[in-house]
Amino acid sequence: MPEGFRFSVKMPKRVTHEAKLVDAGAALLEFFEQVDGLGDKLGAVLVQLPPKLAFDEGVVREFLGTVRELYPGALVCEPRHASWFAGCADALLREFGVGRVGADPAKCSPLAGEPAGDAAVRYWRLHGSPRTYYSDYDEAILLALASTLKADEVVLPDAERWVIFDNTALGCAMGNALRLAELLG
Asked: What is the pTM of this model?
């Protein structure tokens, strides 16, 4: 991989969807042992939650405490239940140094489209809109995103930024990523 290239890895469904963050210590340990081989190429770890997983402060606090014992690096959460978009959830994410993903489409809350939580890591995950996984992003949307990213860099110059295109079903992600890179210079 080129110098400076890093991987963002997604936490396994065994932790997020099956265990629903509860009693996940052994699975987390196994996951972090597996990704440890990436060394300094390991970037942000994504915790994508199932749409039915409501915010439960006690469960989330225990889960993030365990994660932070195992991994001090960039950590982001993509909640997909409306209960995660209240102040107490964002405050808990900030407490543990976890960024909240800005996702497109923002299905469960208008706030889901903008990164939040810990401002040290800013993470956009673009699934394709209006048809999830299929839709190509047009020039106007990519220009707006480039403008957002440039403005974000001015406000938070030290933040780590990630933009992940997940509109892969028809092969649009690569073209969108390359065009965004051109727009960003």
From this structure: 0.95
